[in-house]
Design brief:
Elements lengths: L1 H27 L5 H17 L4 H15 L6 H15 L3 H13 L18 H16 L2 H6 L2 H25 L1 H15 L1
Helix pairs in contact: 1-2, 1-3, 1-8, 2-3, 3-4, 3-5, 4-5, 4-6, 5-6
Length: about 190
Amino acid sequence: LGSAMIKPAQLAGIQEQSIARLNAALRVGGQLTEESSRALQENAAALQRVTRFGDEAIMPLQALLLQMGGLSAEQIPRATAATLDFAEAMGMDIVGAASLVAKSIGSSTNALTRYGIEIDNSLQGTARFEEIIGILETKVGGTAAAISDTFLGSLENLSNSFGDLLEKVGDFIIKNKTVQTAISAVQAKIES
């Protein structure tokens, strides 16, 4: 019984931490509202359905783009999709890809040069964002969806969907006082 409850509770906890990271990044950038957080969580869930990445992995990527790239909440969905495509095209992890994209957008350095992404370094702000994301969309757009459409990608999608179901069970476990009391009683019995 304990083992059956631990995994869902852990998955719910990971989801909770991902949302907390996203909200912290929104707060630091002065953009935290219930609507902005919910919109980015929904964007992560939508991307989970068409890529092989779980929303619990996508939300920290969104947070990184907010923090390092200085992006607005409105720019994040487009930047996130382009970053996932870039990661898949280059065969790299999404945190590394997000770091490169964010550094390139949020500073005068183009960390993407060695990957063949050349930009006008005099551009700043929205113009820089548009140039970088536009180039990524042109060069690697659709790669994450294409990888997701493979057999292994579909298995990962199935795993993500099952993980979401377990997160819901875990959320129930975490928030249900009766279940918490039963867990404590079982734990006390085991320890005695």
